[in-house]
Amino acid sequence: MIHYKSKAEIEMMRKSGKIVAGTIRRCHEAIVPGKTTTRILDELAGRLIAEAGAVPSFLNYRGYTANTCISVNDVVIHGMPNDVPIEDGDIVDIDIGACLDGWHADSAVTYAVGTVSANAQRLLNITRECLYQGIAQAKIGNRIGDIASAVQRYAEKNGYGVVRDLVGHGIGRKLHEEPVNVPNFGKAGKGEVLKEGMTICIEPMINEGTFKIVTLPDGWTMKTADGKLSAHFEHTIAITKDGPDILTVE
Ligand code: MF3
Ligand code: CO
Predict the structure, then answer these.
(1) For residues 172 and 236, what is the distance between their CA atoms, to the nearest angstrom?
(2) Is residue 18 part of a domain?
(3) Residue 2 covered by a domain
(4) Which residues are bridge partners to 107 per DSSP?
(5) From the CB of 58, is ligand 1 less than 6 Å away?
(6) 121-144 in b/e burial notation, b at 16+ Cβ within 10 A?
(7) Which of 111, 133, 142, 249 is the most exposed place for a label (fewest CB within 10 A)?
């Protein structure tokens, strides 16, 4: 059953969203190329979320053992913290969820570290725009398929692959709730009708090459099958009378 949130509940989620956005920003600011590892960022995120009185949404979720998912270069999503320094020229997806007073918010930003290739920068720009193309469709009376097809159209028009195996999701008292699938590919006019008070995460994962991905033996980390780059942007959105309301901003 979809839980349609009241205005007061949306404001609770906005508080969580501010914590998430601030934590992502501060993790980005903390990156020193050649030195900072994703484990250091994961610890920083855990500290910042705790200081804000919240708990990391990902920790212990289906057995996940870290606060964050940080995915570098050809890692598509669910990168687990490790001891490899982030380098100049890398692209780094910082994906964080936080739960304050029982309400979750979830967001991801892929950053360019130092000077990246023109190809990498283009992938980041287009993937961010895919997210905003999807968000623009998140209005009352539209359907999930309108979001999905807008993201897919923009990515494919630009020659990129849209990851199929992972999708966006409803969010609220649970990190993942109904509607459980908010895909980044599909047909306009299909799927669940969007109604006032729905809260969803839209999260395009866009690959430079093939959309195919592989899972590493840790059971979490997912990489592109062809070793090319991948980017990921995500916001938590409320469907409101005034249009899409982005909750994961500071
Ligand atoms: N943003 C991702 C998602 O919503 C991250 C989840 S990681 C997990 O699915 F560890 F919590 F699964
Ligand atoms: Co998510």
Answers:
(1) 10
(2) yes
(3) no
(4) 96
(5) yes
(6) ebbbebbbbbbbbbbebbbbebbb
(7) 249
Domain that includes residue 152, residue range = 7-246
Provide the number of structural domains found in the chain. 1
Residue 91 falls within a domain, yes or no? yes
Centre of ligand 2 to C-alpha 223, Å, is 17
Strands, DSSP E only, in the chain? Answer: 55-56, 68-72, 75-77, 91-100, 103-112, 161-162, 168-170, 177-182, 199-202, 205-207, 213-215, 222-224, 230-232, 235-240, 243-246
- Residue by residue, pLDDT tens for the chain (250 residues) are 999 999 999 999 999 999 999 999 999 999 999 999 999 999 999 999 999 999 999 999 999 999 999 999 999 999 999 999 999 999 999 999 999 999 999 999 999 999 999 999 999 999 999 999 999 999 999 999 999 999 999 999 999 999 999 999 999 999 999 999 999 999 999 999 999 999 999 999 999 999 999 999 999 999 999 999 999 999 999 999 999 999 999 9
Residue 143 contacts residue 189 (beta carbons within 8 Å): yes
Nearest CA to ligand 1 atom 7: 58
Residue 93 beta carbon below 6 angstroms from any ligand 1 atom = no
Which residue lies with its CA nearest to atom 10 of ligand 1?
Answer: 58
Give the CB-side neighbour count of residue 51, counting CA atoms within 13 A.
Answer: 10
Whichever domain contains 147, its CATH number is 3.90.230.10
Residue 104 lies in a domain: yes
Give the CA distances from residue 207 to residues 37, 112, 181, in Å, rounded to whole numbers and listed in that order: 23, 15, 20
